[in-house]
Design brief:
The protein is α+β, with helices and mostly antiparallel strands. The chain folds into two domains: 317 residues, no CATH class; 109 residues, Immunoglobulin-like (Sandwich), CATH 2.60.40. It has 21 helices and eight strands. Strands 1, 2, 3, 4, 5, 6, 7 and 8 form an eight-stranded antiparallel sheet that branches. The longest helix has 27 residues. The model has no long low-confidence stretch (mean pLDDT 89).
Amino acid sequence: MAGVFATLMVALAVVGGWRGYTAVPLWDMWPGTIGFLLAVRRGDWSIWWAPHNEHRIVLTRGLFWLDQYVFGGQSAFLITMNYLLVALAAVLFGLLIRELAREGRLRVPALALSLVATGLLFLWTQSENFIWAFQPQFFLAFVVPLLALYLLARSTTVSGSTSFVLACVAGVASAGTMSNSLLTLPIMWLYSLFVLHTRQRQIILFALSVVVTAAYLPGLSPVDSVNPAIRHGSFPGTLLAHPLSGAKFALLYLGNPVAILLGYDHVAKLSGAVAGGGLVIGILWLAWRERRSPSVSPYVMALLALSGYVVLTAVVTSAGRLEFGIGAALVSRYSTPAVVAWCAFLVLLATVRVNFRHRPGPVMTTAAVTLVAVFLLQYQERALDAQDAVHATRDAVALAAELGVDDISLISVEPAFEYARSIAPEAERADVSIFGHYPYKGLRQQLGQRLDDTTTTVCRGALDSPPQPVDDRFVRVTGWIVNPQTAAAPRLVRFVTPDNRIVGFALTGTPRPDVARVVGPAGATSGFHGYLLATANGLVTAVGDEPSCRLALETKVS
């Protein structure tokens, strides 16, 4: 059953990533990815170490560079890395579980426990991190510390210093993920005090903690990269000013998956906070129990250190995000650290010998586990939800940025829209990200040029309403278009005047169930959103591309 659970959880998450994929940047990706790549292209090598908000995302920037210059800048590589990093976390948990089994500490089958942990690590409450190409940093911030702690634990059980050296390398590298990973080396040093380590190793870990922290902190900025008017809270100032709210935020952060699974309402939030509190109490109890054990397991201590790392991350995050309200602890991307902590807690519980007077029988145990698995799988099915409307919105942002349209309505769906519009010309010249690929590349330069198109196929379609002005140069147009011969909607639509001059563009992909009911499946995503030059006030022809067809439209502005 554990194998079926893990297979379904992973498979559904992978399908969700495929359905959620879009090459169009989102939010922090505009300054954090495209802005970074352009700075590197201009020769600004200091950008590699420059802070992004309060983080130094050096390792993730390396992935951004690879995505652009090795994999074409379409973000597919970055999405793949999200999944590979979770798979690496599953492998590391499996290695820890194997070592615990070798020590005789496990009370359940090691393979079944590894499979359950794998399934949980792919829980879809983390959907934002899975489908957002900017988020390898979020997985790195927990996978790299997990690797460092596993290697540190291994260094106590194998001869030689290789594992310890690699642990130190991973500990230093973790500082290049996110700011909370600055905790990794201090936690490794504390670990060395409780687990058998030489004084020399303890001094090395302490020295690395001091040096890395001293190099990291200078120059950090609390100013938001997308909206400079926003300044994130400081640690410990925010928590000292609002200790109770900070504690509620941290507990809800740790109970994030529970609250999301239960539906975000008041009861769900309360349940999440209670679950977070239970997790903290459980970790403290397990730590106290392990310290009283006649033989301390380095691998149990590694899992306890990982759990402590996540708890401290929750506290630090509450300081920086409390200004957005306690509900901010329930965003999907914060599920990842909580899921990691719950997986560690699950494995730790599997090392505890429980002596109940009346133990539940195998039938009751199987029934309870099955119910939990079915509940999680029911939520995991949300990975199959269609993302067409989201993708269409992202396409509209990218098209407006490429054409230089000042469509302020898009700021509500893309806070970084103004920044995207400002860097689009340079990004296109440099062939960076989407601006180096169809259907966006070169659209701005095509305005006013003649279109040599000989297609005679007549499209089916219409405008939804008269064009609406958006700035001094452009009007917005929406409608639908389908090629009846190929039973497909063209990807790109060019608007041309009677003398074949290009005066605007649109992209299809907007869900149109009303059209689908009339023309069939071809109309399902045939809706388009685009822009026309305001001077094109009259008869124009919409010329579809891939597949090609033509449709005459009346575009008088209302």
